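Can you give me the bound-state structure? Components:
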Amino acid sequence: MGLVFEEFYRSVPKAGEEVCGDNVEIIKKENKTIVVLSDGLGSGIKANILSTLTSKIASGLLDKELPLKEILSTILATLPVCEVRGIAYATLAFLIIDQDQQLRLIEIDSPSAFLFRNDKVKKLDYREFELEGKKIKEANFKFQRQDQLFLVSDGVTHAGIGGLLNFGLGWDGVACQIERTVKKNQNDLKYSINKLVKIFNTFYNDQAGDDFTIIGMKYRKKRKLNIWSGPPLKKEDDQVLAKKISEAEGKKIISGGTTAQIAARELNKELEPGLKYYDKDIPPTSKMEGFDLLTEGLLTLNRVLSLLKKYKPGQIPVEGKDGASRFTRLLLESDSVKFFVGRAVNESHQSLNLPINLGIRSQIISQISEQLRRIKKEVKIEWF
Amino acid sequence: MSENTLKICIGTPCHLMGAADLLESVEELDQSLREKIELKTSHCIDNCCDQAPVAEFNGKVYQDLNPEKLYKIISENIR
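Here's the bound-state model for the whole set.
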């Protein structure tokens, strides 16, 4: 059973600001993952530009494996200078983890990382040196199966200033909150991140005094997802497909009303169409024993595609109870996705003058798989 | 158990042609009428998608509906 490295983050802008001055870039490669966090000076658009530039340059150059010295001098030479303060500045923290679980972390002026190991949060062992006039902290260690690592921007360690505390939480205070939260639910990183954001926001009295960001990382087992969409061209394949999907390993989705009817008939199960519209544009989902989700076909798939296009790696998957949001969540939570696609066309759809961009099933599924490959999911498609 | 069963198709064509409005109009019926009807959704009812939206009331299939037509069908056929 393979392991995958998973990472989630949330950024909260300073109260009253539209955009966050922190920026996170995550690059997933076949053999390594790069995570970059940058916090721009100040807040608002200016900080956002500084941090976006810094993290984009850093992640791009790291991806091309340039030495640290080059990366730093490029960033320093590129950042625009702040008119008010006369300096150009953003903090930077990045890490690279390879397939042997060997991790290299570099921090420049950002709070030290939090390592959760054996139910305790501890500080890493850092080596310090100077480069291009900057003080740099570097840590190298082997990431263990049960470890969780958290990176934060200084908005987190200062949580509480102007709110419930006089001097902010500080590193030890944050460590204490992380330890408490992660212990409660070690397997669900998304839960921990959401919970921690809520806690820090509370220290700020729900009026964040600075932009803050928290990234969490850990290993977990690979998850599989199987999707059947569309009736097959040959009727005798109905039985074959129904059998394939019901015997497949992992979670299962059926997309398409007629497809669900075929599955119910072939597997001799009861299909229970739902009544509730959570979103007026997405028809209700149905229920059938043995399947995690049954949705309508084309409209739902189109919405899934547009949700996937907006997705940036590391973000916490979309909320929402409608079929398309649940579909997208299942896709994002899985690592290897297998599509079983039937190519039969519903004749009466053709006569309806549907909007052209609704497209046909095979095209949409190809586009969805393209999006999934972009975020480094394994995708297989079988056509029937 | 209600005596009358109304099934509304929520397949793609029926949805696009206003199945959600039909469902809503049933929920807004007078209480005295509404409680006599068991409301269900359904996938493709009779393969007559070119006549969407489609509904089935007490076993009979009706095509090309809108809320007014559906109201008429319900009030004329209710048991």
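A couple of observations. The beta strands of chain B are 4-9, 37-42, 55-57, 60-62. The mean pLDDT of chain B is 84.
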